[in-house]
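Structure tokens please, single chain.
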Amino acid sequence: MVEWNVRRLAPPASAFSKGTWGLFLFIGWLLTFSLMAAPRPNKDCLDCHEDKELTKTNAQGRTISLYVDAAVLARSVHRTNWCVSCHQDITEKHPDDEVPAKPAHCDTCHAPQTASYGASVHGQALQSGKEGAATCADCHGKHDILRPTIVDSPLHWSKLGQTCGECHPEALADVQQSVHGRAVERGVREAATCTDCHSEHRIETLKGNAALKLSGDVCGKCHASERINSKFRLPGNRVKTFFESYHGLAVQSGYARAANCSSCHGYHKILPSTDPNSSIHPQHLPETCGKCHPGATAQFAQGKIHVDLGEAGDLAAQINLWVRRIYLTLIFGLVGAMVLHNALMWWRKLLAARQAAGPLVERMDRHQRWQHGLLLLSFIVLAVSGFALKFPESRLAWIFGADEEIRRWVHRVAGVVLLGVGVWHLGYVCSSPKGRRLWSDLLWRKTDFKQAWLAVVFWLRGRGTHSEKGRFGYAEKIEYWAVIWGTIIMGITGLAIWFKMEITHWVPRWVVEVATTIHYYEAILACLAIAVWHFYHVIFDPDVYPMNMAWWDGRVPRRWLEKHHPDDPALTQSGDKTEGSTPSTNAAKPKS
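Here you go.
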């Protein structure tokens, strides 16, 4: 049966032969075309270029060796490349063609790097036709190109000085004498090299460069690094104190002639102040300062640029330090005493104003006051810690210290407290009679919209009435429901940000990013609403100024309640009808 099936499925011999011959012809044609189109192997090139005496004369009349060491090429990063991959100008007439040699086509494989090179001082010089402009091969090598991490590479950090010094010998001599060059010789990896200051492919000159970029991005890159300053026991405040100085402030304002780091310390030959050849040595300071301040004397040059008022030093620094301490004591002591004096006076006047207002009526019970207090506290902490996390460089961030982890956990704990208050309030309005009445009184009704319109007409034209009907008016209902809305939105988005790793098991990452955006802008909306709407009604409204004290003891003046909420049930309750701040006050004040 198997044999029959095989014979049954097998094609006829004639068909098989025709198909086989056709396939063979196609494969043969394809191989022939590929061999004709394929680049010549490196062996064909090395047959000539392994001759050490092979040379040519360039357009300037110089003799150039064309020798290629096959062993060196085999160690380079381009060892798997064909010769014609780089030397694309080679034609079939080579070596007798008259086509002038061109730089290697590095952009074929390294487009981003060559684009940066084109914008560099080297690339611009090459484009302008300047003789001797550095090309890729001048820095990376030719056939012996190695990775910069290999010690033998001309781009290894320890060899960069010699590589750049081939074209910039004077700069190399200065760098070798500098603190940076000496550190490189000692094998200090963190020492600044040519590319650390001038960048790698987008090599730029720093002469005449923006002072802010030089001081902040070039020198500040290392000298503001806490890791580097700690490791090598360098002063950690040099960049900070410079930008706090007159020169630094002028640099930040964009003044083109403002002194920057190199104006005093130099460019390549940067030496410590103890070196007699240093531009900041005491003997040379008048000359250095005189470049910008003609006629500078030794007395003038004694002024310090990097002044940290928190550090002790010579006599001048000691005097400066003690002046600072005295003034800080005066500021905190005197201004603090003023604040305490005015706070006590304000509190006593507030109590006197409440007593003068007549009998008091309970507006908030104990549960409501505790819920409001915790809501107030958690909201303030959330606002401060949240914006501190968003803007870690602001002064606001230092309220909780320099540790972001502390700010993050303070924010989370405050968020948990806020959600806890929300759960407490939900249980209160569901289980307590006063809570259920509070919920019912805060529900929106048609009359609220009518009262809001009448109030707007009154405030605009001064006609009609502006008293609220019921226990709560439209302004208080707006606040209440805004708090509920904000708590739900901030709670959901905050938990999504907090547990983003767990959330992304169920939803895409962009959901967390959208939640972050909502969380941030909802926080701004909430803070502005509290400042503009809530603070006016409980503090700045002339009818309650300097403050509505219901949040403290739950009571408001009866006259205020009769004026603004004449239908409030609290006015008709016997327990609240005669309650006052003091018995004498209630007896002395007639009913308004």
